[in-house]
Amino acid sequence: MDKLFFKPDHAWVGDLIPYYENGTYYAYYLHDPRITPGEFAEQTTWHLATTKDCRKFRYQGEAIARGGDDRPNKNIYTGSVIKKGENEYYAFYTAYNADIRIHGKSVQSVMRASSTDLIHWETDEDFLFVADDCMYESFDWRDPFVFKNEEEGNYWMLLAARKKGGGAHRGGCTALCKSRDLVNWTCEEPFYAPEMYVTMECPEVFRMGSWWYLVFSTFSDRFTTHYRMAKTLDGPWEIPKDDVFDTRADYAIKTASDGQRRFAFGWIASKAGNSDYGPWEWGGTMVAHEIVQEEDGTLRVKPTEAMKDFYDQVWPVKDLCYYHCTAKEEAGETTIQSETLGAVLFPVPEQGFELELTMIPGKSAEAGVALHTDTGMENGYFLKMDLSGHTAAWDMWPRSVQGAYQWQIKGDVPCQVETSRKLPASDTYHIRIFREDDLCVLYINDCMAMSTRMYDHKGGYGGIYTVGGTASVSGYQIKVKSI
User: Fold this and answer.
1) What is the phi-psi region of residue 258: left when phi exceeds 0, alpha when psi lies from -120 to 50, beta otherwise?
2) Are β-strands 333-347 and 461-480 bridged in parallel, bridged antiparallel, or unpaired?
3) Does 476 have pLDDT greater than 80?
4) How much of the chain exceeds pLDDT 70, in percent?
5) Torsion angle (degrees, nearest 10) of CA 270, 272, 275, 278
6) Looking at residue 369, what is its pLDDT?
7) First vs last C-alpha separation in the chain
8) Taking the CB of residue 142, how many other CB atoms lie within 10 A of it?
9) What is the pLDDT of residue 365?
10) For residue 152, is pLDDT > 80?
């Protein structure tokens, strides 16, 4: 069955290692079988799914096997793929075995595998690269990203690392190592050390036009993927005003390009117990956004063309209903006004649809989109737009199971704060919502993505709402997949 988003049967997608060649994106990923309940990224190997449009994936099975219980690569984690010669490919990956100690510590190390076809890989058992334990700590040494530095004529490796003696909470850095043959590596001064995070996972650099970009993921200050920008690899690395691609739900994003377009591959985390109230877990379902470069060098994301083409049959929007508001309809636009909370709503499918609409908030304290709610607005999900603070976040009602007392409903949690994003500067918001199973990916003005999970509410109504003001909606359309 054709799906909008990719997840293997009986397993989950962890960190992505995308690579492009000859019209095909090779989406290597950490395949997490979740063998033991409550444990994640154990007995992890690289698996492969290939795609030509970053939406329809062909599962290719295991790409790199893990070693035995007595080998450093008992567990295989994130890395990168590089081409050296004709049909000569190398994958550098993180190896970890808690029972093997180097420098007296359980450490992460880098191992290497080779391939001639990008499908079949064999690990070089003699290659093992560990931190020097002088400049860098040996217990944070993972996620190698290897690329050719054309100006220096050598290879660079970036790693999620920690300066020796660095603080436990802000000592994370991006390490730099260099090599001329992809075999012998030297440790250099850190590539980027902002002294801000516990660690900076899954580092990557790439160039678009006249700008270089550094991408990395964090789980301390914010659980998300960031980017930095600079005119040269030597920096200085600027922090853009909006330095993320998506919400907390879409983690460990890495990119790949065909030379014309670049795509951001990540995973939308699952939640424990398949419930809205469950905590976020490690691993989930693959998603890809297209990256667009603005004139000032900043980056934004939008849906891929293949995503927009997936749902292809118009589902009639009818039976509009109104909650606590006055309404006016004119020239295909519906405007509502309310002194408190008001909404215009229409039925939406159970799941498996695309909802598109254009919204003008007007002069409101708050406005947004309701999804899978009821006519009394008692339950459901809400894209909550703070118009004065220029932010948006997902909210849900109820926010928790009520406790013994009526007031124990998380009234002090204003929204799902981990999904908060900065709103683009605009008076009008064009919104696309993609729903499949328990996944929801939303785009605003083809500028930003807001991914999340939605387990507990389906069907019902969707629409727009306003608090203490007006809001208008037009161009609303629902599409489903034709049979």
Assistant:
1) alpha
2) antiparallel
3) yes
4) 100
5) -110
6) 98
7) 11
8) 25
9) 84
10) yes
Report how far residue 180's alpha carbon sits from residue 47's, in angstroms, rounded to the nearest whole number: 29
Beta-bridge mates of residue 450: 442
Helices H, strands E: what count in the chain? Answer: 1, 32
For the record, the structure tokens of 149 come out as 């530095």
Spatial neighbors of 295 by CB under 8 A, at least 6 apart, are none
Token pair for 210: 């006249």
Note the pLDDT tens digit of each residue in 374-425. Answer: 999 999 999 999 988 899 999 999 999 999 999 999 999 999 999 999 999 8
Query: Does residue 350 have a pLDDT over 80?
Result: yes
Q: Which amino acid is at 108?
A: Q
Helix (H) / strand (E) containing 310:
helix 305-310
- CB within 8 Å of 406: residues ≥ 6 apart: none
The whole-angstrom separation of Cα 424 and Cα 434 is 20
pLDDT for the residue 460 = 97
- The pTM of the full predicted model, rounded to 2 decimals, is 0.96
Task: Give me 137's structure tokens.
Answer: 């700590």
Give the integer Cα–Cα distance in Å for 323 and 371.
14
User: Do 149 and 233 meet the contact criterion of CB atoms below 8 Å apart?
Assistant: yes
Q: Strands, E, within 150-294: which ranges?
A: 154-163, 172-179, 186-192, 201-208, 211-219, 223-230, 250-257, 262-271, 280-293
Q: Distance (Å, rounded) from C-alpha 478 to C-alpha 346?
A: 10
Helix then strand then coil, in percent of the chain rounded to 5, is: 5, 60, 40
